[in-house]
Amino acid sequence: MKHLKFIFLFVFAFTALQAQEKAPFYNDIQQFKKQDSIKFPAKNAVLLIGSSTFTMWKDVQSYFPKHTIINRGFGGSSLPDVINYVGDVVYPYQPKQVVIYCGENDFMVAGGIDPKTVADRAKNLIQLIRAKYPKVPIAYISIKPSPSRESFVPKMVEANQLIERMLKEFPKTVVYINTFNGMLNEDGSIKTDIFIGDNLHMNAKGYAIWQKIMEPYLLK
User: Fold this and answer.
1) 178 — phi, psi (to 5°)?
2) How many other C-beta atoms are found inside a 10 Å radius of the C-beta of residue 219?
3) At CA 12, angle to CA 7 and CA 14, rounded to 5?
4) How deeply is 1 buried, as exposed, middle or buried, from its count of CB atoms within 10 A (0-12, 13-18, 19+)?
5) Is 219:46 a contact under the CB 8 Å cutoff?
6) Which are the contacts of 161, defined by CB distance < 8 A and separation ≥ 6?
7) Is the pLDDT of residue 101 over 80?
8) Cα separation of 150 and 148, whole Å?
9) Count of domains in the chain?
10) Is residue 207 part of a domain?
11) Is 110's pLDDT higher than 50?
12) For residue 76, what is the domain's CATH number?
C-alpha cells in the first residue's frame, strides 16, 4: 500500500511539473530566474512588466540613465499571462515603481475580445500587484497603435479610455501614461517610420517618443 501511495505521489508530481513546463512562456520565466540567480537586481528599481514592446527594448536603461530599470517584459504575452506570472515578474523585486505595458496581444486571440474585458484584466493585474505592494506607485502605458494591427485600433482606443477611467478608482499612486497620441501624425494616421520591418515593434525613433513621454512619470 505504501508503495502504491509513493507511486501515486510521484506520478502526480511529475504530471504537475510537466503541465507547468508546458505553460505559455515557461521558458521565458525560467530565463529570468536564471538571470536573478547569477545577479539579483537591486531593490527600489523601476520595474517594467508586460509584452514584447518591453522585451524588444533591450537598451531601455540607456534611455533612462537617471533610473535603475529592471525589464521583465516577455514577448507575446497578454494580460492573463502576466497575471499568471505576477509572482515571478513582480513579487520578488521590491520595486520603487511598476510600469505596465500589456493588453495589445489580448485582441489577437481567436474569436476576438472586447475592450471591457481588457480593462477588467488590467484592473485584476493592478489589484494583484497591490496585494503584495499596497503603496508602490504603478503606471499603465496606453495600448499602442501599429500599422500591422491598424484594424484593431478602434478597439484599442476604447480599451485605453476604459483603462484610463478605471485607474481613477485607485489612489493617485496609479497613473495612466498616454503614449498613443505621440505615435500619430497630425492627420491622425499612424507614424510608419517609428517601426521596424514587422510594422509592429518600434525602432529607436519610436522608443525615443516613449522615453520623452514616460520620463516625467518615472520616480527618481
Assistant:
1) -90, 95
2) 14
3) 95
4) exposed
5) yes
6) none
7) yes
8) 6
9) 1
10) yes
11) yes
12) 3.40.50.1110
In a domain, 15, yes or no: no
The predicted model scores a pTM of: 0.89
User: DSSP class of residue 178?
Assistant: -
Which of 196, 214, 213 has the alpha carbon at shortest distance from 205? 196
Q: Is 39 a residue whose pLDDT tops 70?
A: yes
Whether pLDDT at 122 is above 90: yes
Q: Which amino acid is at 195?
A: F
Return d(Cα 85, Cα 79) in angstroms, integer: 10
Percent residues over pLDDT 90 in the chain: 85
CA angle 123, 126, 129 (to 5 degrees): 155
- Does residue 44 contact residue 96 with C-beta atoms inside 8 Å? yes
Residue 10 within any structural domain of the chain: no
**Enclosing domain of residue 33:** 27-217
Question: Cell 497591490, residue?
Answer: 130
